[in-house]
Q: What sequence folds into this?
């Protein structure tokens, strides 16, 4: 059994394949004695969808190489940036068991159904009070609050001490679902936490993150003032928000219909798990809404991030099959734009204004959203309750990790006891010390959700090049034996210049190509490879000189044997 | 002389070729009697630089078609979104005179020097007290405050009444430069303004826009607390800000060096025009900074928007030739990210944190920036002083225009007297009425700044396609007369799949192509065009089926005549 050679005897290894230096694709690895525990396997949605991939997953190569030691995959909660990578992980790696809880189990099972051909491991549904033993290590759980139900922090009781991984959390004293287990946090704090790994997403935000309950109240108040149809968009995973929107509709005499595939599924799972309790008759089908006047209708839909194909975007741009936005409607964004999505959200809002729809966004005027991640006071509480000896800020871009470090230092943690890590950086830990132990392979794998699988970074690079200046293909048909061109060079351009109207440029390129071929023919050893390289280099320079642009040059050489060709 | 047929006798035409429904590429047209007045000719920087163009200019076709009636181009101020399109306009259209003032004149002249081969018209340097007469129309100017010196609102006194175009403005009672001419605003208000066109950029922001002076004070206070090197980035056009940074350096015993081409030029122009007055010895050259300890140095640089090639970005990513960021340095962003640039700014900040540099951004903690555009109170004052009969909100996305309309209605302007327009929409106006008169041609022209000129939208579309799924080229060498393939089809892919490892897919595509060719050969009338179309359609379907992707299919048919080829 191959041990991690970066670790000394007795040391615990902690590192991430995703989630450090970025927000998304969380995947943390804990190597304790002979066991590897994988915590979460998420995806990351790119800022820019232009390059034809839908999301990014971690490079799981380390787990492929060490799969015989994997004790299990432990899921903190059911958000895509924590479970979205599971099917891809399972395709590559044999995972004996997945430990997940509540709504996360439903979401994972649904996800695996959608990915045919993935071998489904046993899913162990853990509860707050469960404990699992692996050698001398005990795995247990602490319920915390987040923007999805059933989010648990992960406790490893090891021979060296307690390691606590918070997952994503906020401090919410008036949550919509079950309360967080603050007593357990205090208890491990009293026992002594060797190392805390804590969520840094909002480490730059001062103060407290408002309670989910206050948002529900604000939404109900807004509903009370509106007299037209309400269209409200939120994250499909925020089942608590959905419940509060159902309640607000009920309190204000409105029926609610759900639009958007992921929202419909969330409503179904939310009702199955009991997190959504709709009074009878409140939820109506898409077809039924026409039976009610606008002031008695709430439309709950996807698209709060301006995603082009989501229900709200289609309603905004007029392509939705069933819902036409009209004056009198009010669209409420019960969400905040995730960085990178601001442009898409703005576009959607602008289209709604064009339809004379009133738009309400979260802001100083209306509290229609709150974050699921703790602000600085929440983080202070976590550090104060658990009082760790060593601290690793996780989940966040580099600057967020550093802000979280500074905050921990204010709480009294020694700077040398805090590790700021990148994906792949290995921290080695024992009861006395923490150290940087080196690196393992980590990186980005691009996934085309609809396609045959992953897209290599070289392909992404080619797409980027093609997108910037287009391409120029030069096709040469020649007789390599008799060293003759059989036809004039053909020049084809896409995304570079119009062929029509630029005949001077294209014929100059063809002439250049001919000149290069004739030069190459004069070599003693004429090779196609050499000819192609010359075409790429020299045509590229020639085009740059003429146009100041650098399209991708694709030389195509069609060699016909002498027998094929005996042109006189 | 071709009149605008959309206008009735006596009507004034008002429309935009850019600036309505967007922030950027401002270009407003006023048709008064037989004269066309063009106000500003700007460019727009795209959110996404991936498609290989640098900016967007208005489609000037209307001006090409009506150039004999153009009385002049009037420039409100020297920002790129108001002057950046001038060289492109001049390439297409004969403009008799450009009217510009102060620093805008320098910036335009510099711009025209950079664009060789553009015929430079006479630049008339107007002053606040000047008046120019065109038939029965009088052109005059009102100085207002903005984030660049010498910003003027444009007054047309016409037979029908006064039309006032604000340009970009904020209300600043303690400006760094000359005061705004509020008296003139009140005066035209008292005379009666027929139509006001007013800046809507900040129509969604409640309250007042803070004074430029408060930012200078805050910056000087921050400087006073810092003990290491200061690197401060701002907009190169904000000469007032630069002046205040020079002052803050002087007050705190620091020398200041300027980095970044546009910032160096701005410093030069600012000193020439007298807007920047640096105490002797404060400004030092790039080479001299090494002579001073870090606590005596301020580096003023470009890159406040995270632009990849700007000085700050290079300092952050370690590729700057002269400046290496190091622990102890403080980077101050005296700016706010323009929508679309947030990601780039975040990337720069993250890189700076990796170098253990302290970063200060504008926010609740530090007032390091203020907008040049008036918030809602500023807009209320403009409307209240000028008391227009008709109102056209300009400069802004559709929702900003509508917010500005709502605000004007609160001030007491009749909803029917307010026009919400898109680029190309023509408003016709006389002393009694305002109406929508139809449309003229308007749109986006993509410019590759380093290239041979404009890039058509079809080219942009091709680049977008190429960027999404790459390309697949199928090369067929055939003898059309004898209806024979001379070689096996060659398949080339870029940005689609790796050729290596996917031989099954490529050979299946080649086989499909062969099958298509043989089918086409069976037609009575075999044509290359028909063959290419069949390849595109059928290979596309075949590839979609195999891979779920839709690369661009580029068929290449090399026809060799019978004489070329007599394969047995």
A:
């Amino acid at each position: 059994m191959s041990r991690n050679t970066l670790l000394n005897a007795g040391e615990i290894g902690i590192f991430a394949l995703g989630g450090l230096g970025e927000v998304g694709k969380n995947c943390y690895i804990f190597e304790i004695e002979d066991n590897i525990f994988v915590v979460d396997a998420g995806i990351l949605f790119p800022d820019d969808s232009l390059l034809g991939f839908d999301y990014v997953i971690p490079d799981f190569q380390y787990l492929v190489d060490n799969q015989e030691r994997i004790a299990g995959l432990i899921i903190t909660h059911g958000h895509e940036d924590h479970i979205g990578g599971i099917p891809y992980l399972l395709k590559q790696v044999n995972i004996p068991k997945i430990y997940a809880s509540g709504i996360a189990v439903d979401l994972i099972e649904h996800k695996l159904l959608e990915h045919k051909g993935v071998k489904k491991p046993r899913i162990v549904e853990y509860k707050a009070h469960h404990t699992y033993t692996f050698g001398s290590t005990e795995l247990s759980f602490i319920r915390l609050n987040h923007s999805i139900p059933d989010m648990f922090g992960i406790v490893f009781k090891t021979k060296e001490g307690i390691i606590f991984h918070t997952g994503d959390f906020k401090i919410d004293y008036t949550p919509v679902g079950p309360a967080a287990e603050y007593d357990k946090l205090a208890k491990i704090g009293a026992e002594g936490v060797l190392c805390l790994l804590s969520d840094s997403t909002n480490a730059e935000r001062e103060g407290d993150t408002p309670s989910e309950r206050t948002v529900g109240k604000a939404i109900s108040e807004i509903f009370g003032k509106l007299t037209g149809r309400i269209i409200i968009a939120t994250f499909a995973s925020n089942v608590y928000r959905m419940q509060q929107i159902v309640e607000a509709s009920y309190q204000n005499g409105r029926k609610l219909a759900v639009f958007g595939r992921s929202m419909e599924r969330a409503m179904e799972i939310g009702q199955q798990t009991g997190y959504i309790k709709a009074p009878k008759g409140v939820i109506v089908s898409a077809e039924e809404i026409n039976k009610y006047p606008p002031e008695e209708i709430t439309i709950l839909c996807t698209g709060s991030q301006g995603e082009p194909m989501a229900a709200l975007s289609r309603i905004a741009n007029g392509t939705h099959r069933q819902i036409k936005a009209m004056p009198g409607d009010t669209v409420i964004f019960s969400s905040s734009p995730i960085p990178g999505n601001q442009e898409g959200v703005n576009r959607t809002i602008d289209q709604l204004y064009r339809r004379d729809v009133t738009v309400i966004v979260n802001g100083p005027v209306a509290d229609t959203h709150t974050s699921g991640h703790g602000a600085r006071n929440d983080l202070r509480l976590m550090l104060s309750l658990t009082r760790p000896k060593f601290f690793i800020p996780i989940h966040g871009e580099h600057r967020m990790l550093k802000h979280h470090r500074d905050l921990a230092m204010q709480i009294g943690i020694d700077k040398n006891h805090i590790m700021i890590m990148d994906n792949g950086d290995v921290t080695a830990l024992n009861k006395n010390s923490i150290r940087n132990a080196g690196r393992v392979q980590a990186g980005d794998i691009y996934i085309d959700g609809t396609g045959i699988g992953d897209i290599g970074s070289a392909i992404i690079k080619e797409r980027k090049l093609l997108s910037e200046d287009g391409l120029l293909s030069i096709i040469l048909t020649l007789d390599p034996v008799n060293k003759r061109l059989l036809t004039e060079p053909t020049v084809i351009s896409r995304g570079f210049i119009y062929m029509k109207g630029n005949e001077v440029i294209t014929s100059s390129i063809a002439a250049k190509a001919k000149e290069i071929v004739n030069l190459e023919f004069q070599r003693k050893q004429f090779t196609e490879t050499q000819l192609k390289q010359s075409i790429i280099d020299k045509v590229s320079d020639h085009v740059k000189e003429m146009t100041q642009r650098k399209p991708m040059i694709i030389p195509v050489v069609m060699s016909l044997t002498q027998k094929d060709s005996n042109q006189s």
Summary: The radius of gyration of chain B is 29 Å. Residues 564-568 of chain B have pLDDT under 50 and may be disordered. The longest helix of chain B spans residues 528-547.
